[in-house]
UniProtKB/TrEMBL annotation:
<dbReference type="InterPro" id="IPR016161">
    <property type="entry name" value="Ald_DH/histidinol_DH"/>
</dbReference>
<comment type="similarity">
    <text>Belongs to the aldehyde dehydrogenase family.</text>
</comment>
<dbReference type="InterPro" id="IPR016162">
    <property type="entry name" value="Ald_DH_N"/>
</dbReference>
<dbReference type="GO" id="GO:0016620">
    <property type="term" value="F:oxidoreductase activity, acting on the aldehyde or oxo group of donors, NAD or NADP as acceptor"/>
</dbReference>
<protein>
    <submittedName>
        <fullName>Aldehyde dehydrogenase</fullName>
    </submittedName>
</protein>
<dbReference type="InterPro" id="IPR015590">
    <property type="entry name" value="Aldehyde_DH_dom"/>
</dbReference>
<dbReference type="InterPro" id="IPR016163">
    <property type="entry name" value="Ald_DH_C"/>
</dbReference>
<dbReference type="InterPro" id="IPR026460">
    <property type="entry name" value="Aldehyde_dehydrogenase_Rv0768"/>
</dbReference>
<dbReference type="InterPro" id="IPR029510">
    <property type="entry name" value="Ald_DH_CS_GLU"/>
</dbReference>
<keyword id="KW-0560">Oxidoreductase</keyword>
<dbReference type="Pfam" id="PF00171">
    <property type="entry name" value="Aldedh"/>
</dbReference>
<feature type="domain" description="Aldehyde dehydrogenase">
    <location>
        <begin position="21"/>
        <end position="484"/>
    </location>
</feature>
<feature type="active site">
    <location>
        <position position="259"/>
    </location>
</feature>
Length: 489
């Protein structure tokens, strides 16, 4: 059966596809501004029912102890998504405005395949570790450390890479034995709701293990964070919302896992191939119109080559035209909404007010009156103190900043409230490695290396988050540790 066949998506609660008690809300194609269809609009009571179902599935079934069933279900989800991959691709392009080329990797196929990593990890995981016999306080005792699921996970996700983020939470959380209530972003309800359809039709997940609650109302996320029946919040989104989630979760001392914003630096050392590094930096900032939390949006270059770096970045960006995301050659599609486009435009206006200049772009592309597009933009003439250089813009906007040597480059890169990612380019491997080691961030690319993969943890220092997603560390975020000490004679 085709997914979302009638243009209406449902809630998925306790194994059933349900209408939203508050009606429906539209989902929009950001490239055309057309309404694609509608999604179920949940209210607070729907959210309460979903939490209740997840609680019961955790407390009253053997889900958390039946590793074989869990591994089978996660693999079934992966295989069923693979079977629907072309439908999912068209949906993702239409709802997210994701360039088609990215659906072969992080926008779709990567995270679907990575469900296999979560299942494999659960299958081979050492759930019990025997510390052996000892006599703490003089009492002969055998100690076993058991790892077990945390419980009910509230997963709250953004719109920019919906499959990546939804599945990087669902995969490990479920494989580890938790039950989940997923509240996706209001801008991309369908990318989440299709999971409910696929799970209902093609998998053996017991009712209540996965629940998906779509809503245009952000406060449903806050309900998840506050609810005493929820054991842990796994949140990806902006730092401001993450702070609010932490405050809400504090009342019940829940575990909080946060993947937040970034303002990452692309550091070019003075022995690097400046033209090639500046071009790569500009190109990567245009990917998905800059709507990636780990994109390196500050290009930090030797002062002596500043003008050359700006010129190369501007030439690269000028050659990348914001385009139809369904075209296979498009790198830079639309922003997700008029609100985001206006927010980015606000930062472009701020850059000029702060004394910066545009070396390319600077506004909406004249050729695209329809769709939420912004021209790839290079900002020159600002220091790292400018708000434009410190705050997350989340658009195809690169700020070029001068440095006075390796120490200064490290200082500038680390002079940020964020600490998500970074890049270093240079010719001398030892020197590049020294600089990479000094960056206070969760992932570093050196001379073009790629850190994104199922087995590599991803996450941030400082205000970019708490905890790690993906890799073994991402699996273990969803586990408690219990020590069982048995007296021996
Ligand atoms: P957002 O913070 O506005 O929303 C994220 C989610 O939180 C949505 O589902 C939203 O409905 C929900 N939400 C909003 N207010 C809430 C509240 N008070 N309590 C609970 N939930 C609430 O973020 P966004 O605009 O959807 O996404 C863009 C942001 O996400 C950027 O800052 C980006 O850097 C960040 N992001 C981070 C990562 C990462 O892994 N570090 C990945 C992708 C996006």
């Amino acid at each position: 059966m085709a997914l979302l066949a009638d243009g209406v998506s449902a809630l998925f609660i306790d194994g059933k596809m349900l209408s939203g008690s508050a009606g429906t809300f539209p989902t929009i194609n950001p490239a055309t501004e057309e309404v694609l269809g509608v999604a179920a609009e949940a209210d607070a009571e729907d959210m309460g029912r979903a939490i209740d179902a997840a609680r019961r599935a955790f407390d009253e079934t053997d889900w958390s102890r039946n590793t074989e069933l869990r591994v089978r279900c996660v693999r079934q989800l992966r295989n069923a998504m693979r079977d629907h991959i072309d439908e999912l691709r068209e949906l993702t392009i239409a709802e997210v405005g994701a360039p088609r080329m990215l659906t072969a990797s992080a926008q779709l196929e990567g995270p679907v395949d990575d469900l296999g990593f979560a299942a494999d990890t659960a299958e081979s995981y050492v759930w019990n570790q025997d510390l052996g016999a000892a006599s703490p306080m003089g009492i002969p005792t055998r100690r076993i450390i058991t790892r077990e699921a945390v419980g009910v996970i509230g997963a709250i996700t953004p719109w920019n890479f919906p499959h990546q983020i939804n599945l990087a939470k669902l995969g490990p959380a479920l494989a580890a034995g938790n039950t989940v209530v997923l509240k996706p972003a209001p801008d991309t309800p369908w990318c989440a709701a299709v999971l409910g359809e696929i799970i209902a039709e093609h998998t053996e997940f017991p009712p209540g293990v996965v629940n998906i609650v779509t809503s245009s109302d952000h406060s449903l996320g806050a309900l998840l964070a506050k609810d005493p029946r929820v054991d842990m919040i796994s949140f990806t989104g902006s730092t401001a919302t993450g702070r609010s989630v932490m405050i809400d979760a504090a009342a019940t001392i829940k575990k909080v896992f946060l993947e937040l914003g970034g303002k990452s630096a692309f550091v070019v050392l003075d022995d690097a191939d400046l033209a090639s590094a500046s071009g790569i930096s500009a190109f990567s900032t245009c990917m998905h119109a800059g709507q990636g939390c780990a994109i390196t949006t500050r290009l930090v270059v030797p002062r002596a080559c500043y003008d050359e770096a700006v010129a190369v970045a501007a030439a690269t960006m000028s050659s990348i035209k914001p385009g139809d995301p369904s075209d296979s050659g498009t790198v830079c599609g639309p922003l997700i909404s008029a609100r985001q486009r206006d927010r980015v435009q606000g930062y472009l206006d701020l850059a000029i007010a702060e004394g910066g200049t545009f070396a390319s772009g600077g506004g909406r592309p004249p050729s695209r009156e329809v769709g939420f597009f912004i021209e790839p933009t290079v900002i020159a003439g600002l220091s790292n103190d400018a708000r434009t250089a410190r705050e997350e813009i989340f658009g195809p906007v690169l700020t070029v900043i001068a440095h006075d040597g390796d120490d200064d480059a490290v200082r500038i890169a680390n002079d940020s409230p964020y600490g998500l990612s970074g890049t270093v380019f240079g010719d001398d491997p030892e020197r590049v490695a020294r600089v990479a080691a000094r960056l206070r961030v969760g992932t570093v690319s050196v001379n073009g290396g790629v850190w994104y993969s199922a087995d590599a943890p991803f996450g941030g220092y400082k205000q970019s988050g708490i905890g790690r997603e993906m890799g073994l560390a991402g699996f273990e975020e969803y586990l408690e540790s219990k020590t069982i000490a048995t007296a021996v004679n």
